[in-house]
């Protein structure tokens, strides 16, 4: 009997991975046993749809798409679901699944606390990330505050590459608050200091090792394949990912506005 093909994985990238560029090292050339094969990484939208079409055409294996957010990009999840919706009714019917997001905010807090552990007790921790939208950036400030609250460092500040405050401005704020040493850690899949070394700032290295990222991807893929076997592809749940994100909105008398919160399609994943 022929052994079943390992699942094929496509990674959907957003602002936390440079549109997928920072995920390129995770793409595998050859399958390894029965582990999922990461075939491609692409930005959500047309590049992602083309990558998924190629994955579906490459063989008969199921294809799982992982939204590679660390918990600050619900738009990536919704955009990924929209890109997959039509494929799932055509060539991907029964073979295509959208997994749970790579991470949630509570995971990112834990990962940042672990990454900050490499910094000395007297160091300030500078949490860096590419600038995104105002709500995504504000969420990073909230996360940094919780990292400080439940960590061991007195100073945990935020810096946004291409935004405000910049890494240089964030480092200067740390100094003004009394820090003698500063360690930068990334709240992204990219480097802590994407523009290069910064005087007086130690590079704390990547947020997660490739082996740790691979383990989470494998867990998300296994959970999605289980649900796919029960007829749930995860796409409908993904379409609602942005609900509640951004500006609050209200509906006046007589307005018809519906959000789908169907209990008929449970979509449960156990965090890795």
Topology:
Layout: E1 8-13, E2 37-43, H1 46-57, E3 63-67, H2 74-89, E4 96-98, H3 105-116, E5 124-130, H4 134-150, E6 156-161, H5 167-176, E7 182-186, E8 201-203, H6 210-228, H7 235-239
Parallel strand pairs: 1-2, 1-3, 3-4, 5-6, 5-7, 7-8
Protein name: Cobalamin biosynthesis protein CbiX
Region (Disordered): 239-272
Organism: Kitasatospora cathayae
Please give the number of β-strands: 8
Number of helical segments with 4 or more residues: 7
Note the beta-strand portion.
15-25%
- CA-CA gap between termini: 33 Å
Order of strands side by side in the largest beta sheet? 2-1-3-4
Q: What's the number of domains?
A: 2
Shape: elongated
**Helix percentage:** 25-40%
Q: What is the CA-atom radius of gyration, in angstroms?
A: 20 Å
Q: How does the helix and strand content classify structurally?
A: alpha/beta
Extract low-pLDDT stretches.
Answer: 248-272
Could you describe the largest sheet, including whether it forms a barrel? 4 strands, parallel
Report the average pLDDT across residues: 88
Q: What's the helix-strand series? A: EEHEHEHEHEHEEHH
Q: How would you portray this structure in words?
A:
It is a single chain. The chain has 272 residues and is an alpha/beta fold. It folds into 2 domains: 8-103 and 209-239; 119-203, Rossmann fold. 33% of the residues lie in helices and 15% in strands. It contains 7 helices and 8 strands, in the order E-E-H-E-H-E-H-E-H-E-H-E-E-H-H. The protein has a 4-stranded parallel β-sheet with strand order 2-1-3-4, sandwiched between helices. A 4-stranded parallel β-sheet has the order 6-5-7-8, with helices on both faces. Helix 2 (74-89) links the parallel strand 3 and strand 4 (96-98). Helix 1 crosses helix 2 (74-89). The two termini are 33 Å apart. Residues 248-272 have low confidence and may be disordered. Residues 258-272 have a biased composition (Basic residues). This is Cobalamin biosynthesis protein CbiX.
